[in-house]
Amino acid sequence: MSDAGLQFDRAERTAPSGGAICAFCKQPISSTYYEINGQVTCQRCRGQVLAAWNRGSPGRRFAKALGLGAAAAAVGAAVYFGIEALTGYEFGLVAIVVGLLVGGAVRKGSSGRGGWRYQALAMFLTYSAIVATDSSLIAREMTKQFRARADSVKTQAESAVPAAMTSGIVLPADSTGGVKQAHPGPLAFAIGFAVLLALAYAAPVLIGVSSPLHFVIAGIALYEAWKLNRGVALRVTGPYQASASPAAA
């Protein structure tokens, strides 16, 4: 039985008497059984569930959830860019798919435990994937503006050369005057990178101001990632006899 089969959000209780069936392996129970979050479970599956639940340390589970979630976020962003490259259109609804992918991947990495840490991780990774797509939109628009300005400056410079030659003005060959331009140091580079990163993470908000629908889609994506990682408590009771009803909790 794999970790993916550990689902405790809903109790699907099988009748404890008259041919009880294990909710996990679907095999009939003839003697002793247990209940895991309200689901009738045979002794063998109970051991497997507990082993899977206690497998690994919290740090390793979080690292696994981070790795799987980051991979899912990258796949989701790649799907967005792939659709855009093939169709020439931008589909914001892909963000919801990203939320589902990331939420499911983080939940798998946590072995189905969930909780606020994994919810925060899933939402952060989902938002990061949205940032990657939104910041690319802003970058393309800025590139278009820079190219337009560069073309305008080039046109003005080309028109200024004949005018200068006509009036007898000699243009300097080196406008820098032979002075070396200073290169930014590590601190300036780090500050610049931090500013660019902050602007990138602000991109969804900036786009959402002019397009409220973008806010709605991003909100749904974050909600899906959060919902898939709700905390689950493992409650095991028993053993009980198959011929008798379990005692009231």
Walk me through what this model shows.
This protein is mostly helical. It has helices at residues 43-53, 58-87, 94-109, 116-167, 186-210, 212-227, and strands at residues 32-36, 39-42, 236-241. It has two domains: 3-54 and 233-241, Cysteine Rich Protein (Ribbon), CATH 2.10.110; 58-156 and 196-227, no CATH class. A three-stranded antiparallel beta sheet has the order 2-1-3. Strand 1 and strand 2 form a beta hairpin. Mean pLDDT is 75; it is low at 7-15 and 244-249.
Index terms:
single chain; 249 residues; mainly alpha; Cysteine Rich Protein; 2 domains; 3-stranded antiparallel beta sheet; 3 strands
SSE topology sketch:
Elements: E1 32-36, E2 39-42, H1 43-53, H2 58-87, H3 94-109, H4 116-167, H5 186-210, H6 212-227, E3 236-241
Antiparallel strand pairs: 1-2, 1-3
Helix pairs in contact: 2-3, 2-4, 3-4, 3-6, 4-5, 4-6, 5-6
SS element count, helices: 6
- Could you estimate the helical fraction of the residues in percent? 55-70%
**Helix-and-strand structural type:** mainly alpha
Strand content: 5-15%
- Sequence of secondary-structure elements: EEHHHHHHE
> How far apart are the termini?
27 Å
Instruction: Report Rg.
Output: 30 Å
Rounded average pLDDT: 75
- How many individual β-strands? 3
Oligomeric category:
single chain
Q: What is the total number of structural domains?
A: 2
Q: The biggest beta sheet, please?
A: 3 strands, antiparallel
Show unreliable segments. Answer: 7-15, 244-249
| Sequence of strands across the biggest β-sheet | 2-1-3
Choose one word for the global shape: elongated
